Amino acid sequence: MLNSLSGRFLILTVIFVMLAEIMIFVPSIARFREDYLLSRLERAQIASLALLADDMLSTELEAELLDNAGVYNVVLRRDQMRQLVLASPLPAMVHQTFDLREATAGELIRDAVLRLADPQARVIRVIGVPSLDAGQLIEVTMDTAPLRMAMLDYGVRILILSAVISVITAMLLFLAVRVLLVKPIKSVVGQMQSYAAAPEDARRIIKPTASVRELHEAEVALQALETQLTQSLRQKERLAQLGGAVARVSHDLRNILTSAQLFTDRIEMSEDPAVKRMAPKLVNSITRAVSLCENTLAFGRAEEPAPALTLFNLAELTSEVLEAERLAIGEDDISLSEDVPAGMVLRGDPEQIYRILSNLVRNARQAIAATGQSGEISVAANIDEDDWVIQVADTGPGLPPKAREHLFQPFQGGVRKGGSGLGLAIVAELAKGHGGALTLLRSDENGTCFEVRLPMGEMN
């Protein structure tokens, strides 16, 4: 119980209530002491009235009056005269004098604490103002033992009452905390455990019901988190299923393309000039398709294979990419241009760099074609300090905000309707495999520009 929230709250409540009672206890004891001394002054004044009425009181009656008043002697000052009205022998010298006429709260509290801490009986002198203006002052001497006993008795009763109040208060607060906080928190914990058992089940997502504002905000945040997690798990499951399907299709497609590759030798032997001109491109396309299928199968097992680094001419590779895209343009009014130095040699995987450029150019072409307007796509390259820099720019409509938020995430960064959003994700991963990065430089109503930076490293 002590390790629970409600148990600790109960203990803290008892402690704080007791501390509050102690803060009240000290002034209460001081007030009790003051009232006690004032009552003794009033009794002494009443006792002195008997003597003032009859000067011939017997010694026995005088002693009885002093005993009833609880004092040893009484001194009155009337008409500027100080008079010893009642007197009896003192058991000891006067230890201390207390003047209640001008005593401050701090002095009363201090004197009360000191009196409780001093167990020895003392004889003290107390000075005060007589009741009903029956003189200038009244002064008595008295024993402190009865005063201390009365203070202790009063203090014990106050402490017992404080303990009872603190326990009752703590129990009420304990029940209130359990109902208002602990029970709702346990409900949230139970829901979290239920959701953890089957996070794919959307029916187990929490529905905020708490009336406490802070707890309600926590439930709303938890609901958003669980909803996002469930969607992510579902997406990952679909991706896993899709990956299995793609792997099977790629496996069969690779076999088909391998068979088609066997016939390209005969096509290359044709005497037709047009066939001779197109045959190498067909061979390259089939080779790339077979390589893509093999890489897809490798991706299904782990991730994109490490690039096979070699030196190649980037201008020639760029020309191949643009020529393949020109065949896909058809009747669209889209122009392609390149600004790549003819002798620029890049160290990388030619197949993967081809896929990088092909994906970027294809995305740009499809974005422009979707508008039905004319446009231009340009591929430029240069060497910037220690990097090869390739930029693919277009004059298309720019990327929508949603596509920018999930730009390089598979199945989320698609721009076209029905698009998968895999193109940029593949480009980013291939660039990363070369130690480089894909960056969106700009995207607005004037067009979009992507930049691929590949580190040069050691040229060997």
In short, what is this structure?
By secondary structure, the chain is of the alpha+beta class. 58% of the residues lie in helices and 17% in strands.
Layout of helices and strands:
Elements: H1 5-53, H2 59-69, E1 73-78, E2 81-86, E3 94-99, H3 105-117, E4 123-128, E5 137-143, H4 144-197, H5 213-268, H6 273-301, E6 310-313, H7 314-329, E7 334-339, E8 345-348, H8 350-371, E9 375-384, E10 387-394, H9 401-405, H10 422-433, E11 437-444, E12 447-455
Parallel strand pairs: 3-4, 7-9
Antiparallel strand pairs: 1-2, 1-5, 4-5, 6-8, 9-10, 10-12, 11-12
Helix pairs in contact: 1-2, 1-3, 1-4, 5-6, 7-8, 8-10
Description:
The protein has helices spanning 5-53, 59-69, 105-117, 144-197, 213-268, 273-301, 314-329, 350-371, 401-405, 422-433, and strands at residues 73-78, 81-86, 94-99, 123-128, 137-143, 310-313, 334-339, 345-348, 375-384, 387-394, 437-444, 447-455. It is of the alpha+beta class and 460 residues long. The strands form three sheets. The protein has a five-stranded mixed β-sheet. A five-stranded mixed β-sheet has the order 7-9-10-12-11.
